[in-house]
């Protein structure tokens, strides 16, 4: 039912984890993909091969999304190669797991620059291309429960995700009448390279399994990608400035 043929989607942090699943889902639905990474060239190339095997155009581009110049160069490349952008998935994030009491100014800035300021740079650079989309263009940010709950060692990232959600709402206000939807998909705990490094990861996964209300099924990267696919499609044209939680119900289970 969702047909994204002819659409161009940029996925930041598309080399691994949730970003990789989003890129593949969007490609399966027909979109051509610009796949961004910063360090994992091999994994980015592997994901790109899977997308090319689906018969889609795919371009791999290295850019550190916390660096304004890199973001502008990446969007210049998208403009030169595809001439427009229909879907932007702002997925890449980092930040490190540490207690707030030992966080330095540098740690704080790194988390905010990669997880929040990147969306500012990405949108400032991409609005002219998003405005060339036929139909409404879709911007989707990826957030986490840390934006509204407290998790051990997650203070910096959680703070950045709260700011990200607010930034998305305010962009929705500024861009809605220019043909662009800005929404957030907020994911529960998914096993990826980063969450496997969480201190007490086993307890965190057990806790989220216990709170989940969809039987025995664990949340996977493709479950998050399915929500992103909806947000990227015309089915969500009237969804604006929202945060959609995909976590099997864990967040509402006390
Ligand atoms: N996993 C979860 O449980 C969970 C839950 C809720 C929300 N999320 C959110 O979902 C998103 C993806 O998480 P994940 O667990 O899939 O992460 P991951 O497996 O650690 O992958 C991170 C991705 O981001 C890219 N990246 C990191 N810093 C970057 C930078 N400065 N510039 C460009 N790319 C950068 C990485 O690129 P390289 O491969 O090149 O290093 C990689 O592709 C994040 O926004 C995360 O906060 C995750």
Enumerate how many helices there are, as a single number: 7
| Bound small molecules, deduplicated | NADP nicotinamide-adenine-dinucleotide phosphate
Let me know the number of strands. 7
Order of helices and strands: EHEHEHEHEHEHHE
Outline, from the CA principal axes?
Answer: globular
- Terminal CA distance: 36 Å
Largest sheet: 7 strands, parallel
Q: Give me the CATH fold name.
A: Rossmann fold
Uncertain segments: none
Order of neighbouring strands in the sheet with most strands: 3-2-1-4-5-6-7
Mean pLDDT: 97
- Radius of gyration, Cα only, in angstroms? 17 Å
Number of domains: 1
Short description:
With 254 residues, this protein is of the alpha/beta class. It contains seven helices and seven strands; from the N terminus they run βαβαβαβαβαβααβ.
Which terms summarize this structure?
7 strands, 43% helix, single chain, binds NADP nicotinamide-adenine-dinucleotide phosphate, Rossmann fold, alpha/beta, seven-stranded parallel beta sheet, globular, 254 residues, 7 helices
Q: How is this structure best described in words?
A:
The protein is an alpha/beta fold. It has a seven-stranded parallel β-sheet with strand order 3-2-1-4-5-6-7, sandwiched between helices. 43% of the residues lie in helices and 15% in strands. Helix 1 links the parallel strand 1 and strand 2. It has one domain: 3-Layer(aba) Sandwich (Rossmann fold). The site of NADP nicotinamide-adenine-dinucleotide phosphate has 30 residues, from helix 1, strand 2 and strand 5.
